[in-house]
DNA sequence: TTGACAAGTGGAGATGACCTCCATATTTTC
DNA sequence: GAAAATATGGAGGTCATCTCCACTTGTCAA
């Protein structure tokens, strides 16, 4: 699956360039105002090149998403290594909200693009899911968190938070969801 | 906003017909394999008629969603009238999961179609939000639920549940989310 | 270096979905 | 029952998407 044949130097350069430009345009929230062909021109490549690297808008989104996930996973590992399990989990979830808040356009664009191909999202976020699962499992081992609730439920809640980015009081409600989840996790059976 | 001028009899009939057919196709999950023009033919009307009633796929989704919301709100009122507040809230949320589970294709299609125009979703689900807010408020009055968490957070969690309908263990995780929310809502000591 | 082959590029143009438009048909009104 | 108002349907224009291939660029062995 990750058996990517080594790309030729210029191809790799173009690919990176496209992803970088995509992240930029996503974050600005301008992606849907743009013809896909025009995005190619904006990135300085021909349409053929764009389509060879990313056959669809969704494929491009997936690549960007991959980068996001990798960064978040690094953060999860760092927290897990430096804090008690329960605090690490809480810090991670709170930080996730901060992150989404700071990149509203990106979050919104990714959510929109992956809405129909949610399978792709699940695919891309497998690593993130693993990170969350690890954080929860560690907290369970510490006895800080109940063991009868699947970590997948936390993923779902996060999903809801990032998918609902247009609600008027998004930030406050997102924080409340995290509060509910954390308090709900703490409560013994 | 709801100041709809009375539609001519045949127009009303066609409109209802389109919504009914849409619900059917949504639920079967076949909507995205269909050209919008072909959907018109499938429903037995011309493309012009389809476009006059519903200028976009999203507009059609919104109409279907409206019906769903109305049914759910009725259920909320019924529960609220017949059960203690906390139980009504729990029953409503659990029932919501049942409902989504029973209409997977519909939920998925609606979620996809409204992903970009989430504003429209918020618009259409105002009534649903009000119902949830009422249920929560009643439970707060009973002292069964904390008062420092906004009902919007519950909406967000529900949003996550319906948006994540492709997860392998969806049903179990959805139930867990509800558990977390309900337990989280009970006053922390 | 150089030649030769592999790999990648870009953009013109085919394709096909979306939506508009209006001559015709149906309801409603008086 | 005739005129006015309202709604219909589908032919065809428009425009974003994606394919295709003649050409350029990179790689590698000698």
From TrEMBL, chains A, B:
DNA-binding region, residues: 35-54
Molecular function (Gene Ontology), one example: transcription cis-regulatory region binding
InterPro entries: Homeodomain-like_sf, HTH-type_TetR-like_transc_reg, HTH_TetR, Tet_transcr_reg_TetR-rel_C_sf, TetR_SbtR-like_C
Sorted UniProt keywords: DNA-binding, Transcription, Transcription regulation
Domain of life: Bacteria
Transcription is among the record's keywords: yes
Database matches in PANTHER family: HTH-TYPE TRANSCRIPTIONAL REGULATOR BETI (PTHR30055:SF234), HTH-TYPE TRANSCRIPTIONAL REGULATOR RUTR (PTHR30055)
Protein name: TetR family transcriptional regulator
